[in-house]
Structures are given as C-alpha cells and as structure tokens.
Amino acid sequence: MFEFDIQATAGRARVASFTTPRGQVTTPMFMPVGTQGTVKGISPDELHAVGSQMILGNTYHLMLRPGEAMVAAHGGLPGFTAYPGPFLTDSGGFQVMSLGHMRRITEDGVVFKSHLDGSLINLTPERSIQVQEGLGADIIMAFDECPPYPATTEYVKASLERTVRWLERCLNVKSREDQALFPIIQGGTDETLRALSLELTLPVNPHGFAIGGLAVGEPKTEMFPAVAFSTAGLPENKPRYLMGVGHPEDLVAGIALGVDMFDCVYPTRTGRFGYALTDQGRINMNSSAPRTQLQPIDESCDCYACRHYTRAYLAHLVRAEEMLGPRMLSLHNLRYLHRLTERARDAISNGTFHSWARVWADGYFKNGVPEWFSQALQTGETAV
Amino acid sequence: MFEFDIQATAGRARVASFTTPRGQVTTPMFMPVGTQGTVKGISPDELHAVGSQMILGNTYHLMLRPGEAMVAAHGGLPGFTAYPGPFLTDSGGFQVMSLGHMRRITEDGVVFKSHLDGSLINLTPERSIQVQEGLGADIIMAFDECPPYPATTEYVKASLERTVRWLERCLNVKSREDQALFPIIQGGTDETLRALSLELTLPVNPHGFAIGGLAVGEPKTEMFPAVAFSTAGLPENKPRYLMGVGHPEDLVAGIALGVDMFDCVYPTRTGRFGYALTDQGRINMNSSAPRTQLQPIDESCDCYACRHYTRAYLAHLVRAEEMLGPRMLSLHNLRYLHRLTERARDAISNGTFHSWARVWADGYFKNGVPEWFSQALQTGETAV
C-alpha cells in the first residue's frame, strides 16, 4: 500500500505509479476539487471519462455539512459521492484561515465561527484527524497553519514550528492503517524557513509530502523558487503534492520541478465563470466572438463538450445562464488539465519533456513566455 | 412520413407509433421542454438514457436568442443542441402572452416588448412559421392566441376565430415538407366554443392536433371535461397533443381520455426546486427527513441518481446549493414521467390500463383520489 514507483524521469520531472487502497494512479496528476462532496456539476462517470484519478474533499466544509458521521455512514466519501476511486482530504487548516470568521489560533488549535450559521467551532489536530478518518480518504493531510502572504519571518517561523508540533499530535491519534498522512512543508517563500520545515518534518518518514503555504498571493517569481527549493529537499522516492495549484502554466512548471500531485478549483470555477482552457490560452465564452463560431472549443479535445457542441452553442448557454453551460465548460476544463498532465507524462517518458514544455509555452503565453516559467524549466532540467 | 399507427387501445386510451422525419416515437409520450435549446442541466445522452423521445423548443425564446438564423446555421435544433432525435416547436403565441411586455394583439399578429432588452417585436403567423422553419423541428405549431382564464365568452370566441384565420395564414406560408404543422384547438372550458374551434379546424386535415387553452389556471374539474370534449371531437387516426400539461396525475388522466403527447417544464422545474417525483407523491428534498435516509429516492427507479445516490447525499447537494442536486433531481423526474408513460403503454397493451391507473392513483393521492381524476378515468373507459 502507498507504493510510489518512478517509471521515467526528465531532469527533476518524473512519471510514477502511486498505489493507494482504492487503486493505482499515475503521476504527475491533477486532482479535481470536490469541496462539498461533489466536483461542482460533474458526475462520477464524467470524472472517469475526463481522466480524473483522485478527488479532493474539504474537511472544513464536510465537517460542517453534512458532518463526517453522515459521510462515514455511507462508508466514507466513495460511498457518499458514488465516486469509487481514490480520495484525498485536506486538514481544514487552510480553509479555516480563508473562510472562518473571528478565528483564534492557539497552541491547542483554531477556534472559529462557522460561515454557515456562526456557531463556534474548535478545530484541533486531533479533531482534524477524527474528521478525516470519518471521511475515509486514502490520503489525508496533517493539520497545519498556512500563514498569509506577506507575513513576518518571526510569524512564519513560529507558525511552522507549531505546525510540526501539530503534526506529532496528528500522528499520535491517527488510527487507520489504510490512510496515508502527508505532512505539509511550510516556510513561505523564505529558503531558511523552508529548510527548517524540511529538517523538522523529514524524520517523520511519511508516505508522501505536501508543499503548502504557496499560491496564497505571492508573485510567481517568488513562488516557483520556493517550489524548487522544496522539491530539492524532499526524498526522491516519495510523492510530492503542491497544494492549491492548478493553472495550466503552474502545472507545467511544477511538473518540471518534480511535483507529482496538484489540486485547484480553477478549472471548474473558471468554467462556471464562462472560460474555456486551450493550448492558446483561455477563451472567454461571455465575449461576442464565440457566439458565431461553429467549431468546437478545441478540435483536438475528446471531451463531451468538444465532441458535441459548437462554441456558438456553448456561448449561447453561457449567455442564457443555462446550467448546461457551466457544466460543459467545467467538464472541458477538467479534461484540458488531465490531458495536459497526460501529455507531460508522455513527454517525460519519451525524453521530450523540456522541448514539449517550451513549444507548449510558446503557444500558450500570448505576450511572450515569462521569465519565471523559463527559469522553472531551466532549474528542473537538471536532476537534483 | 408522419404516419400514426394505433397498436392497442383501452377505452379512449391508445398506444401508437408515430413516424417523424427524425425517427419513430411511441405514444403516449411526455416531451421534456428545452426552452432555450437545452433541457435545463441535462445532456442529450442523458435524455436518451431516461427515455426521452421528442424534445420541445420554444420559438419565443429562440427567436430572441440566439435567433433562428444561428440555429439554422447548425442544421436546426438537432445540430444546435446535439440531440439527434425528433423535435417539436411551439409557435411563440403562448409565451408572448405569458412573458412579453406591453403586448398588443391585432388581426395582423402580436406586437410585444422583448423580456430581454425591451426591443419592440412583431410576431405574426408568417413570422412564427419562418422562425419555426429555421429551428427545423419535425412538428411545428400554428400561431395562436391562448386567452387567459377567466375570459369572457365573447373574447374567447373572437380569439378562436382569429386563431383559425391565423392558421390559414400559417398554412399559406409554410414551405417545408418535412415539418408537420399541428393546429391548436381553443375554446377555453366552454363546450360550445370548443365545438366551434373543432368545426373550423378539422377541415384543414393536418397530421395531428394540439389541444390548447387549458392548464392556464382553471380548476381540474373544468379542465378535464374540456380535454374529454376535445379528444371526443378529434379524428381517431391522428395524434393529439395536450399542451403544457405534465403533472403525473394529469398524464394518467389525459392518457385515459385519449391524449398522445404531453409537455411541461414541471419535472425539471420542480427538480431545481428540490422535489423528487415518486409513486407515493413528491419528496421534498429540502426537508429534514431525507438528510439521514440511506435509501435511493425510489428503489424501483433505474435512473442514474437512483442507481448511485442516497436521499441523504441528494438532500446534502440541495442544501449546499450544489449544481449536481438540481441536475440529478431533474434527471430522476424526467425518468419518472417517462416510466409513467411506459407503464401506461404496457397496461394499455396488456388490457390492464384502468385497473393499473386506479391502483396507481390510490398510492399517489395521499388524501384520497379526487373526483376529477376518477371522472376522467370513467369517461375514458368507454371508446367514443
């Protein structure tokens, strides 16, 4: 269980098979976010059809509604959501910070007011693990604090040290053998602090690691060096999960730097807002041009929307505020990100990853490939 | 083309196969409403899976947005919506009355303000046929006025006579041989006026007839006698379409009285509002009971929602305002109405229709079977 077998590499980038209790997945992979026990608008059969491998569930949302006991009564998230494959749950820490009101952080944990009914809720490392054991995902996360950006060096240091103490408490109460607990490397964009987080966390020797505290508002010129520093410090034989990251360009750069797992609400959220992802950037289906275009979003895409519908029809749905519009754009965008990781995996296996990534970037970035992206590719081109 | 072959009868009720240019359908049937070129939230593959045979499109909505020219550029509604089966379009008349602002009815047609942008639009019999030929449905409707309920006898009489003159104008401009134009029998709930409408309309000898002007607010004790009077006056060898009717009890009563085709937004609209149709009446998924029920909506239902989800999960989706909730409830409700017509067809074929309908009604009406329903069954039990 939780075996991670590297099958091909290209510099730091790697293709691996990762075995979980509910099945084997192939990395690098993108994980759709099923915040409240559903990837918004998408059925389990459709997730399979677009190539999803592992689905993310949110501890914060699900503990508030319907509560982990109701999910457990269904045999966990696979039974509740009817998606029979592997799941990953976050620890609730990040979302308490972003959604909870009047939060107070102490050594014990976090007290916050529910965004649903204002009730006072206490989330501790122990409670986070209890909830995640009820939700029953294959991969669960250690309870951490994700400091905002910017934050002072003192704050980030104190926070990451507390996160390490919370990790110990998570491990102490964790009881299910069929769940792998990933600790989360923090330290913001400061290499000294990232090094400290790595030093304090590595001895735990878990089945995999998450890289947290990034994609919280810092510029990409700071984020990707921090990713590069983190992956360089992590053991090669364990999966690495870059949390909350999922724009196409971030996936390609992250893969180059040796990241194996990604998640983000981006493909479904931007789909609900009327945007379609392509190799030439995003198409705004709210604009007037697509309304008269009789071709699909993307001739090369094999998703249901691209096989059945013209841009004109999809633009009509968006304009008419019809539910099928966000549904189809979400589906297409998930397929786009899954295909992107498939293409990256093929290129790694074929030894063409870096040239493929550069050609992709030339088509994708309309105003020239940004320096941070080229730098990430270059850094990743040589194995650590 | 447009052949209507009766295969079995039970009193006035009949099972028939109806051939259209885009395929053969079996009646009695319920037609889902694709108001703006989409059955809200449901894909074409799902329509096939739940047993939909013919989809309705709305001339009023589609002429305003995206315009019939754009639909025609896709080869009509089947190409635009990616639903390859038969379609029916209404004439726009009814929706101008219910949605248009500041309408003015003259002998020429109706002038109204678009509910989208307030622009002044002139809808005439000629324009309605032009739009419907662009939309390209298999069955199209004559342009009519549907008087409100209540209305004076004088008004309803003048209106139905004008509707007959409009029918002539529709037939004069109709140019496509592959579309069957159904005239609409009006006359409100007044038998003298219904008889007049029948007398003036029958000589046109169309491929089928619509029964209009009902389900607009009148009590069922007035509506179903008017249905019975209409079907009794229509030729047996032509399909009869009761417009805008689609509650389960109305389908069973209408079938008993010899109606072959129904349409209504009810199954999808009530699904979006959180209600699930069953043989025991509607389940309110917004209420607290379903939140802890681990069984499907309906053990006997073969829809995707019933095969995959518990009531607790679906109630969670509704409560969390997740898109998958209305989508799945709409799907289930469509399947429920299609199964209801399938069961009615089987019972007609087996010679058990009236006993089946009475058993169904005993389970469905929680406060006793209403008089209007029993009366409709009884009236329909004897062939005309």
UniProtKB/TrEMBL annotation, chains A, B:
tRNA-guanine(15) transglycosylase-like domain ranges (all copies)? 12-364
Q: Which residues bind substrate?
A: D90, S91, G92, G93, F94, D144, Q186, G213
Per the record, the pathway is:
tRNA modification; tRNA-queuosine biosynthesis
List its EC numbers.
2.4.2.29
State any GO BP term from the record. tRNA queuosine(34) biosynthetic process
Question: Which cofactors go with this protein?
Answer: Zn(2+)
Binding locations of Zn(2+): C301, C303, C306, H332
**Organism superkingdom:** Bacteria
- Spell out the molecular function terms from Gene Ontology: metal ion binding; tRNA-guanosine(34) queuine transglycosylase activity
Q: What is the main EC category here? A: transferase
Task: Report the cofactor remark.
Answer: Binds 1 zinc ion per subunit.
- Does the entry feature the keyword Glycosyltransferase, yes or no? yes
What are the catalytic residues? D90 (proton acceptor), D263 (nucleophile)
Q: Which GO terms describe its cellular component?
A: cytosol
* Keywords in alphabetical order: Glycosyltransferase, Metal-binding, Queuosine biosynthesis, Transferase, tRNA processing, Zinc
Q: Answer whether the UniProt record assigns the keyword Lyase to this protein.
A: no
Which reaction equations make up its catalytic activity?
7-aminomethyl-7-carbaguanine + guanosine(34) in tRNA = 7-aminomethyl-7-carbaguanosine(34) in tRNA + guanine
Q: Where is this region: RNA binding?
A: 244-250, 268-272
**Protein's job:** Catalyzes the base-exchange of a guanine (G) residue with the queuine precursor 7-aminomethyl-7-deazaguanine (PreQ1) at position 34 (anticodon wobble position) in tRNAs with GU(N) anticodons (tRNA-Asp, -Asn, -His and -Tyr). Catalysis occurs through a double-displacement mechanism. The nucleophile active site attacks the C1' of nucleotide 34 to detach the guanine base from the RNA, forming a covalent enzyme-RNA intermediate. The proton acceptor active site deprotonates the incoming PreQ1, allowing a nucleophilic attack on the C1' of the ribose to form the product.
Q: How does it assemble?
A: Homodimer. Within each dimer, one monomer is responsible for RNA recognition and catalysis, while the other monomer binds to the replacement base PreQ1.
UniProt cross-references to PANTHER family, sorted A to Z = QUEUINE TRNA-RIBOSYLTRANSFERASE CATALYTIC SUBUNIT 1
Its family? Belongs to the queuine tRNA-ribosyltransferase family.
Q: What's the protein called, per UniProt?
A: Queuine tRNA-ribosyltransferase
Annotated gene: tgt
